[in-house]
Specification:
77 residues, mainly alpha, 66% helix
Length: 77
């Protein structure tokens, strides 16, 4: 059964459509190729990255990206 919330997360992208236009979503590829621990670490690392830089680079967009990754972290844990 397809989880519609998970599908919506995969199709949502903050800051453009450069990933959503791909046939294979990067998150799906990474989730397949990495161990569960590695994938969780990647997601958590991106939360930290976007939170650390939002005041100097992307502002609100970076906060939205951090939230997007955090939502995935919550789903994984």
């Amino acid at each position: 059964m397809v989880d519609l919330n998970d599908l919506a997360d995969r199709l949502r992208q903050i800051g453009g459509e450069h990933y959503t236009s791909k046939k294979v979503q990067p998150w799906d590829a990474m989730e397949s190729w990495l161990t569960e621990e590695q994938f969780k670490g990647f997601m958590l690392g991106n939360v930290i990255k976007y939170l650390a830089r939002f005041q100097d680079k992307g502002g609100q967009t970076d906060l939205e990206k951090a939230r997007h990754y955090l939502d995935k972290c919550i789903e994984l844990w």
